[in-house]
Amino acid sequence: MPATRWGPRIDERFARPLRRGLPASARTPGVRVVEAAGALLRVRDVGQGRTLVFVADPPVTVEAYSEVISRLSGRHRVVVLEPPGFGFSTPPAGFDGSFAATARVIEAFLAGLGGAPMGLVFPCAFGYLGLDIATRRPDLVDRLVLTQAPGWAQEIAWRDAVARRSPLRWPVVGQLLLRPCAPLVARSWLRAATADATLTGALVRHSDAAFAAGATFALATAFQAYLGGPAPTLAPAVPVTLLWGDADRSHRASDPQTLRDHVPSVRIHRLPGTGHFPELQRPDALAAALALDGTT
User: Fold this and answer.
1) For residues 238 and 4, which has the higher predicted lDDT (pLDDT)?
2) Percent of the chain scored above 70 by pLDDT?
3) Would you call 75 helix, strand, or coil by DSSP?
């Protein structure tokens, strides 16, 4: 899939108004903006104790994590962030959207957060950020829970299947065409990927409200740049658990066992009837996975 510097620059320009401040509807209790390597990340930070950091899986925003926070914040500091270019988090100037550039932002955020070593709960393609940072910065991470993260080759195959009939694969054109129809694309994907009607309705409502307030959705840049390079070199020395929702229609062709290509020792928990967001649909399974890793 081709990539150029111009596509990410368009998404960066779309996000610039947010650098002047969050809209009133995005300023909710426990939410703040944190600078990390030039990016401004919207973060929900609740509770005290051992730190757990979640990356929200776009188009999901931090508002969707209320039940998870309620379940965990009695014993943990729960931090949820929207990645750069998504939701109300803005990328730094000159951001090229690559895996390496995104990893620099997230690593800088974790390094400045305090509470290390911490547990990470990272979803889908962002799970590779967690594996990469755990490999390079074992001082920051002592536990890692991934969700819907197959092997890298299958992640690329998933991207290609999604983008095959879509302009998302075309630099510049993809960014420009996605902008006006991002709410519709997000709504359609949430309904296809989520297996619980109540959760689907909540996520769609949050997504619609976020886009109405000016949220961004740099999916074209993610497809072209973030997933555009070779597989990262991964050798995490921390416990890794994968939660896999078997009812995720967006990953029906993906095999969670392929994550063993990168992490042979990964513990895989398959969850029947669960869609793309196991951490949101099955917070009980998430809590059990964290307990198994000794973090609760």
Assistant:
1) 238
2) 97
3) coil
Average pLDDT across the chain, whole number: 93
Q: Are the C-beta atoms of 82 and 106 separated by less than 8 Å? A: no
- 78's tokens: 């729960």
Give the residue carrying structure tokens 């988090």.
89
Using only C-alpha atoms, the chain has a radius of gyration, in whole angstroms, of 17
Q: List the single range of 84-88, 130-134, 139-143, 226-230 with lowest mean pLDDT.
A: 226-230
The number of beta carbons lying within 10 Å of the beta carbon of residue 241 is: 22
For the chain, count helices (H), then strands (E): 10, 10
Nearest to 63 by CA among 272, 210, 255: 210
Instruction: Check whether 293 has a pLDDT greater than 60.
Output: no
CB 188 within 8 A of CB 203: no
Contacts of 291 (CB under 8 A, 6+ apart): none
- Coil/strand/helix, residue 277: coil
